[in-house]
Structures are given as structure tokens and as C-alpha cells.
Amino acid sequence: MVGAFRASNLSWYYYCTASGETLCHGGTMSKQLLRAAQSGRLDEISTLLAHGANVDCRDISGRTPLISAVTEGHLEAARLLLKNGADPNAQAWNQDTALICAARHGHDQLAGLLIQSGADIHMRGYMGLTSLMWCCLSGRTVLAKLLLDRGARMDDESEEGRAAFTWAAEEGHWGVVTLLLDRHADVDLKDRRHGVTALIQAARQGISKAVELLLARGARIQGKDLNGRTALHWACLEGRSQVVELLLERGADVDDPDEGGDTPLHWAAFKGCEEIVRMLLSAGASPDMKNLQGDTARDVAARIGHTTIIDVLESWEHRA
Question: Are residue 186 and residue 237 in the same domain, yes or no?
Fold first, then answer.
């Protein structure tokens, strides 16, 4: 008999009401409300709330009906729940709020509704991420602007030690990076895990336009990560020839060693990229510099088996 009513959630609700189960056991109404919110069924939400369902009940993950509705992008369902007293700052067991979920999934209108309804834009969710951090992590430029206009803090850091600007750069969301720079973000900001700057990220990813943007905004071309590697080191290691050419044109130090004594030429030899090796040599890189293990770039190439690189380096030595 019970199974026959499961085909329609609303009819299942009426069955429970008639049998006295819903009114006597809040758990059943809570489940119905959570399912209705997740599916955006407005009539069912209204009926359940009118019969006393707890608007802030929770599922097994601690999500409220509002969080469920927002996650699934149901604007009118969220509006209805808020009108009936839903807490806009309720947190699921992982600490995420409805606003954080809206930011993560790019629901701009829902985020605006939540902010108007009193959602705290500074609250932290999973791993200490704020709504602004999620916008930067997911590339939500429009919503990031809304949050910044409402006073969201750019300097807050997640539990991993990364701020909004760092998240945007690491994920390659350069539109968000530009927005944050326009709001006076520190262009040389480093994450606390690896000491990586936005310029280093752009160089690693091989995005020449981003490198140009950051240099134009004053990024230090010799900024280093915790291993002492600059943007040029990383461009060489990743084989980003266009970025290498750009950095050299802008005056990057071609012989700057990292913490292990490896110069950009060492890393280019390790990568086996002949084009970059020739660029570095033409820019004045010394093939004789040794790292802390006593290896030159030629030694590195020989160990890896890059015979073409060995030939290039040897011919350059003979030319000198």
C-alpha cells in the first residue's frame, strides 16, 4: 500500500497526513521537504510548510532545504523557503552555506537573493573557503564582482594558506585575476604552501597574455617560490617557449639559480627543449654553471639522454 503512493511525492504526503504519520513524526515531513526543495516543487514545499514542516530541517549531510534548493539552482524554491524563515547562514556538516553553494555552482541570481536576505559573505565553508574564494576557484567573474561590491575580503586565506587572488591564478581564471587586480589585489601575493605567485602560475601554464598583464601591473619578474624558482625556471621546465621568449625580452635573469643551484638552462636541458635551450644561450646563459650536485646543463642532458641538447651545448661551447 505504501509503495503505491511513492509514485507521487505529494500524494505520499497526503497519505502520511491521513494516517497521522506526518503530523506525529517530524522526520517524515522533513524528508519530504528536503526532496521537494531539491527538486524545486513549489506547491509541495508550500503545503509541507503550512502543515508545520521544519524549514531548517537537515538531511544526512546536514544540508537544509535551502542549501539543497540553492545547490540545484531553484531560485523560486529558495525564495519561498527564505520567505518562510529559512536561515540563510545555516551550515551543512562540511560547513558550507547556501551562499557558498551558490558561488561554487555559479548561481548568480540565487547569490544575490541570499545576500539580500542576510547571508554572511564572510562565512567559511569546507577547508576554510569563503564564497569569494569559490568564485575565484571556479572562475565566476560576475559573482565575484557582486561579492566584492558587497565588501568581500580579498585577504582571507583558506586552511591551505591561499587567498582569493591565489586561487584565481592557480586555476587560470584570468578574468577574475584582472577583476581582483582592479580592486588593488597584491600582484606578487604568494600562497603559503609553495610560495607561488600569479606570474609563476601564468608562466607554468604558458599563458603569454596573462604574463604580459601581470608584468604590466608590476609583478616582480624575479619573484621566487619556496624552491627558489622564478617564472623563467618554470617556463623552461614546462617547455613554454613563447613565455620564455617574453620573459627574456622583459629582462629576466637568465642565470639565476634556484635552491638546488639549477639555472633556467639546467631545467631546459632536463626538459629536452632545443628551442628554449637556444633561446637561453642566445640571451647569454652560461653553459658552464654548475648546480649543487656539480652538474652543468650538459651533464643534466646526458643523464636524461637528450642527445640533441648535448650537441647544441657542445657546439655552443666550441663557438665560445
Answer: yes
The full DSSP string for 102-134 is HHHHT-HHHHHHHHHTT--TT---GGG--HHHH
Domain range enclosing 134: 1-144
DSSP assignment of 13-47 equals HHHHHHHTHHHH-HHHHHHHHHHHHHHT-HHHHHH
Here the cell at position 8 is 507521487
The CB density around residue 294, as the number of other CB atoms within 10 Å, is 8
What is the per-residue pLDDT across 233-246, written as a single tens digit (0 to 9) for each? Answer: 999 999 999 999 99
Distance CA 99, CA 111 (A): 6
191 shares a domain with 226: yes
Shared-domain flag, residues 172 and 35: no
Specify the pLDDT at position 162.
87
pTM: 0.81
Residue 155 domain-assigned (yes or no): no
Instruction: Give the pLDDT mean for 114-126.
Output: 97
Query: Do 268 and 242 share a structural domain?
Result: no
Q: Whole-angstrom Cα distance, residue 43 to residue 233?
A: 60
Mean pLDDT of the chain: 90
CATH number for the domain harbouring residue 284: 1.25.40.20
pLDDT for residue 172 is more than 60:
yes
Cell representation of residue 195: 610560495
